[in-house]
Specification:
There is one protein chain. The chain is mainly β and about 170 residues long. The protein is built from 2 helices and 12 strands. The chain has one domain (about 1-165). About 10% of the residues lie in helices and about 50% in strands. The protein starts with a strand and ends with a helix. The relative contact order is 0.21.
Length: about 170
């Protein structure tokens, strides 16, 4: 069951101030080139509700852009800078970088290198920002994709957001 309310969405949307505040959703999925789950991420401006949010954890989190299942954490972040894979094919320092390869597969890396062997064929080598594990992810795109450097403002606030939603009922 989808449960959303306008008041709830307004309280959890990013403020319209100088700071670009977003919510980093961490969820588990199986990429097409592997048979093993790993962390993937969504960087959302707004949390608008839950699917089957009567119980914790909810089945899915609804954002202003996507519905994400198997969400483990939500972390409030501040965007530090935005670039793309062509201008910044490797991280210059350790940080937290959301690599928006496509709408489904977004990684959050402590460090990364994008290796394009030929136009439309390459791979992303990265260290996952949650687990620290090193991964390689094949890519097949000719277009540069967004890379957003973020700073964590909170720890996991999934339960707090869910509880606020329950109290607003």
């Amino acid at each position: 069951m989808l449960s959303t309310e306008g008041a709830f969405a307004e309280t959890l949307s990013s403020d319209k101030t100088e700071d670009d505040i977003r919510y980093l959703l961490i969820f588990r999925a199986v990429p097409p080139h592997q048979k093993k789950e790993r962390n993937f991420y969504e960087l959302a401006r707004e949390i608008t509700g839950f699917i089957d949010g009567r119980f914790f954890p909810p089945a899915a989190v609804v954002t202003n852009e996507e519905i994400r299942y198997n969400v483990l954490k939500i972390i409030k972040t501040k965007v530090l800078q935005t670039t793309d894979s062509q201008r910044s094919p490797r991280s210059l320092k350790n940080g937290r970088y959301v690599l928006a390869y496509n709408s489904l597969y977004r990684m959050c890396a402590l460090s990364y290198t994008i290796d394009m062997k030929s136009p439309g064929k390459g791979s992303i080598h990265y260290s996952d920002c949650e687990s620290g594990h090193k991964y390689q992810f094949p890519i097949a795109t000719r277009q540069p994709f967004a890379i957003v450097e973020v700073d964590y403002l909170t720890e996991n606030i999934l339960r707090q957001i869910w509880e606020a939603r329950q109290q607003s009922r």
